[in-house]
Amino acid sequence: MNKRVFVFAIGSAAFTVAATTFAQVIIRGTESADNSTTHSEVNITTSDRNLVPLIKESKDTKVDSTTQRTEAVTKARLNDGSYFEWQRSTATRKELSPDQSVSSTDVVEKDRQGQDHASRHTDETVSKSASGEIAETKMYTRNTSGQLVLDRVLDANTVKGADGTANTTRLEKVPDVNGNLVVKTQREEVAVPHGPNENVVMSKTMAADHLTGKLAVTAQETTSITTDGGTKRTDSTILTPGRTGWELSGRTTTTETTGANGSVTRETIEQGRSLFSEKTGDAMQEALVPQRKIVEQEVRQPNGTTVLQRDVFHRDVNGDWKTESFSTKEADKGRINGS
Question: Are 2 and 46 in contact (CB under 8 A)?
């Protein structure tokens, strides 16, 4: 068995926590030699205990030469320390041709009485060509009556240029009160390569203006992605409409370093506008300041295990980084809140 770490997707569930006691969250997992089955666990470790509130097992099956199916089961911890099957998902992808594929995903949640409730269903079609790609995703969610209804439709159309540029238009459409699809947001992206080690993506996001009934630009974003050996740096800046035109409202910088043994260190710093005016007398005129830092480490151990540690920091009023902490009282009870 090869051992490694896996991303844990738990949908809309969240743990009830209160900020009192520091705890560390680590995800550990194992993978079969042929990569077809995985077992992963969320571990919450404090100074005096170790809890495993969620366990996920998944299996990939090649149905035939064109169809792949992935089944995943997530188990949640009960008050007595036992586990019950909380969520099951089945994803199927079929290659209709070398340039066209369809896929569907079903998510079913089980309550503690053992009753199944369909939670989500997704259908996706992707068509590729030498000039670009067209994708459509339809997402269905459960309404208050327990029925699956169309929640939104995502359309993406990418056109590639001979010079390596890629223009992508993404539409998010939602049903109105009459069931007709209307555009909620539109995002236009232009990706331009700057040599072999840098790619720049410029985008603008438009949303419906309820006063005019038309789409209006609500944000502009520029992202630069550069690589240098084992280091990858991503810089993003966001402009939003302000009183004097477009104003810089956010900046995110992520630096990812991969070691010779495959271990990865990733640091993300998010900057925003301070809530307090220090120099100008107007908080909106202040420069951006670091507000949150996320440090992730994927460390490969000598025995083949890969351990993921994720720490989140916030700046306090003195400008010092403080680690987020939380109480495990509710986690001890295995309590999960889900929609």
Answer: no
For residue range 120-147, what is the model confidence (pLDDT) as tens digits? 999 999 999 999 999 999 999 999 888 9
Amino acid identity, position 277: S
Q: Taking the CA atoms of the chain, what radius of gyration do you get in angstroms?
A: 23
> For 249-254, which contacts have Cβ atoms below 8 Å and span 24 or more sequence positions?
249/273, 250/288, 251/288
Computed from CA positions of residues 34, 40, 45, 49, in that sequence, does the dihedral angle turn out positive or negative?
negative
Compute CA distances 177 → 144, 182, 185, whole Å.
Answer: 15, 10, 17
Bridge partner residues of 336 (DSSP): 15
Cβ neighbours of residue 294 under 8 Å, at least 6 residues apart? 266, 267, 268, 270, 310, 311, 312, 313
* pTM beyond 0.85, yes or no: no
Task: Find, among 228, 253, 259, 252, the residue nearest to 238 by Cα.
Answer: 252
Distance (Å, whole) CA 153 – CA 226 = 32
Model confidence over 196-236: pLDDT tens digits?
A: 999 999 999 999 887 777 889 999 999 999 999 999 999 99
